[in-house]
Design a protein that fits this description.
Number of strands of chain A: 3
Mean pLDDT of chain C: 87
Largest sheet of chain C: none
Number of helices of chain A: 6
Structural class of chain A: mainly alpha
Oligomer: heterotrimer
Chains: A mainly alpha, B mainly alpha, C mainly alpha
Shape of chain C: flat
Distance between the termini of chain C: 52 Å
Strand order of the largest sheet of chain A: 1-3-2
Strand content of chain C: under 5%
Radius of gyration of chain C: 16 Å
Shape of chain A: elongated
Helix content of chain C: over 70%
Strand content of chain A: 5-15%
Distance between the termini of chain A: 20 Å
Chain lengths: 171, 106, 88
C-alpha cells in the first residue's frame, strides 16, 4: 500500500511539472505574476488529470533516466531523417520503387506508454507505418517488404532498434 | 544567423513539398499516409527551427508547437490507418508481384 | 520585408505543398484519400501559419498555429473514430 501511495504522489508531481513547463513555453516569460498564475493552473491540472494518467506508470524511475531518454531521442531523430531521405528517393524516382505489404511484428514491451512510443517510432521510421496494436502484436504497413518476410525477421528489421533503447526506461 | 534560418526553412519546406508530392503520386491510401506522416512531421520541425533562427525571441512557443506536432502527428496517422483498415480497405500490391505470385502457385 | 532567393524558394515550395495536398483532397478518389489528404494538409498549413507569423513579424499568429494544430489533431482522431463505426 505504501509504495502504491508514493507512486500516486509521483504521478501528481510529473503531471504538475509537465504542465508548468508547458506553461513556461507558452508564456515565454519568468514574470512573477505569470509564474504565479502558471503554478495555480498547473496545480489544478495535476489534481484533475493525474488520477487518469495511468499511462505514466510504465516509466522506470532512475537517476540516469534523462540520459536514456536523450539517447533514445537521438536514435529516433536519426531514424526520422533517414526515413525522410528514403521517402524522398522513392517519391522522386519515376519508377516508384515500392513493394507494400502488411506484416506482423512482436514487442516485448509490457506497458501502454512503451507500446505507444514504439508505435510512434515505427510510424516515423523508414518505410513503416503502425496500423494496429493488439496486445504484444503490432500490425505494420511496410512500404518495401521483401517477399516471404515472417514475424521474426520483420521484428528484427523494424522493432529491435528502438526496443532496446525503450526497454531501458520503460516496462 | 539569417542564412542558417533560411537553410532550415528551405529544408523544411522541401520536405513538406516532397510529402505532398508523395500524397499525390503514391498508389493507395496506406502509402499516402506513409509519405504524409513522415515528411510532414520533419518538414514542420525544419520550418519551426528555421523560424526560431530568424526570430530568436519566439523559441519557447515554437518549441511548444514542435513538441505537440512531434507527438500528435504519428498518433493521428496511426489512428487514421487503423480506422481505414477496420473500414475494410486493403493495401495495394504491385500488379507484377501479384501475377508472379500466381504463376509460382500454378 | 525584403526576401532573399532562398526564402522565396522556400515559400514557393510551401505553396506547392499546399496545392498538391489540395489536389489530392479534391480528387479523392475515395473518402479515405480525402481524409488522409486533409490530415497531411493540416500539418502543412500549421507550418505555413508559423511562416506567415514570421512574414508579418507578429507573434500572435503563433497562437493561431498552435490552436489550429490542436484542432486538426482532434478532428483527425474524431474522423477516424467515426470511420471505425463508433465502437469502443
Amino acid at each position: 500500500m505504501e509504495t502504491e501511495k508514493a507512486e500516486g504522489l509521483g504521478r501528481y508531481l510529473v503531471v504538475f511539472t509537465g504542465a508548468l513547463l508547458f506553461w513556461l513555453l507558452l508564456t515565454g516569460s519568468l514574470d512573477s505574476q505569470e509564474l504565479l498564475a502558471g503554478l495555480l493552473a498547473s496545480a489544478v491540472v495535476a489534481v484533475m488529470a493525474a488520477p487518469r494518467m495511468g499511462i505514466l506508470s510504465g516509466i522506470r524511475w532512475s537517476p540516469v533516466l534523462p540520459l536514456q531518454v536523450a539517447r533514445y531521442l537521438g536514435v529516433f531523430f536519426l531514424a526520422l531523417l533517414r526515413s525522410n531521405f528514403d521517402m524522398a528517393r522513392r517519391v522522386l524516382s519515376p519508377a516508384l520503387p515500392i513493394r507494400p505489404a502488411l506484416v506482423e511484428v512482436k514487442t516485448s514491451l509490457q506497458s501502454d506508454l512503451g507500446r505507444l512510443l514504439l508505435a510512434n517510432s515505427i510510424t516515423l521510421t523508414p518505410g513503416t507505418l503502425t496500423v494496429d496494436v493488439e496486445g504484444e502484436r503490432l500490425l505494420v504497413h511496410w512500404i518495401d517488404a521483401s517477399p516471404g518476410t515472417d514475424l521474426e525477421s520483420a521484428t528484427r528489421a523494424i522493432v529491435s532498434q528502438f526496443e532496446t533503447h525503450l526497454r531501458e526506461f520503460l516496462e | 544567423m539569417r542564412l542558417v534560418g533560411d537553410l532550415f526553412l528551405l529544408l523544411g519546406s522541401a520536405f513538406l513539398f516532397l510529402g505532398a508530392l508523395g500524397l499525390v503520386r503514391m498508389p493507395d491510401v496506406f502509402n499516402r499516409i506513409q509519405a504524409g506522416a513522415k515528411a510532414a512531421t520533419l518538414g514542420v520541425l525544419g520550418v519551426l527551427v528555421g523560424i526560431a533562427f530568424l526570430q530568436p525571441g519566439w523559441w519557447p512557443k515554437l518549441l511548444a508547437i514542435g513538441l505537440f506536432i512531434l507527438f500528435t502527428n504519428p498518433v493521428g496517422s496511426s489512428t487514421l490507418a487503423r480506422a481505414i483498415r477496420i473500414a475494410g480497405v486493403r493495401p495495394w500490391q504491385k500488379p507484377a508481384e501479384e501475377s508472379r505470385a500466381l504463376e509460382e502457385k500454378s | 520585408m525584403n526576401l532573399n532567393p532562398i526564402e522565396n524558394l522556400a515559400l514557393a515550395l510551401l505553396g506547392g505543398a499546399v496545392l498538391l495536398g489540395l489536389y489530392r483532397l479534391l480528387r479523392g478518389p475515395s473518402a479515405v484519400d480525402r481524409l488522409v489528404a486533409a490530415d497531411t494538409l493540416s500539418v502543412v498549413i500549421t507550418g505555413a501559419i508559423v511562416v506567415v507569423a514570421w512574414l508579418f513579424a507578429s507573434a500572435l499568429y503563433l497562437d493561431v498555429a498552435l490552436v489550429y494544430g490542436v484542432l486538426a489533431f482532434v478532428g483527425t482522431v474524431a474522423m477516424a473514430r467515426a470511420l471505425e463505426g463508433g465502437r469502443s
